[in-house]
Amino acid sequence: MGDGGKRGILATTVWIVVCGVALYLATAYLFLPALWTHREHQPGLAPGPFVTTTPQGIPGDPLNIGLVGSGPEVVGAMAAAGWHPADPITFESSAEIGISVVLRRPYQDAPVSTLMYQGRRQDLAFEKAVGTSAAHRHHVRLWQVLATGVERRPVWLGAASFDRSVGVSHRTGQITHHIDPDLDTERQVFIDSLTAAGVVAQIYQVTGIGPTLAGRNGGGDRYFTDGEISLGVLRPDLAPSATPPERRPSSRGVAFKQRVWPALVAAVRALPFMSRG
Asked: How far, in Å, CA of 229 to CA of 265, rounded?
């Protein structure tokens, strides 16, 4: 083969490589993010980030749930669904939660640590105890992020997670709760509790942090999530209704992602380090 033929093969190879790299970049950084991003149900939400921080600025729990309604409606809905407002952090409440964990005594209003979003601490915090002490509990922090959404009512976003044990923060060494890594399951627990109470008129999703398989929160705990935020639109009068809430569909790209996501989650949960937190 002559020099001209070799140069032709080299040029073709370079062209194929360049096209392959360009296709990868377009797919990974333009097409898939656009395909999996949707906020058409609540376009007033900022583009992000949808992750809280600790008061020290360390990335915390991602936002994964939301509510549409006034402050009193949110408080009333949470009460109807069996959630208890968390006590403020004081010397007395800190001592009480310690006693609850050590002696396995119930403390349904145990305080939760402070997280920040958009430069401010949570507006509201609630929890549901599991078992005989405050070591295990469902809990959620909520921030009002829009004074008026598409429903002409306030929009709240929150971070819901399940405390599975008490231990030491991997980042600061302070005593803290460790969360279960599966945030999507806890998101569903939250929505299901409000649905069972009959106070939700409509449910839909918007994009949050995006697909995350190996995240870490402010305590250094691992988490994974498909990155969606489930919002429940509260019934204005909070009168319980046996009618199931309307479920607005997600975009096709998000629907496709959620079909393949369980397989990815199963693979991640099988990894030994996920069980250690």
From this structure: 17
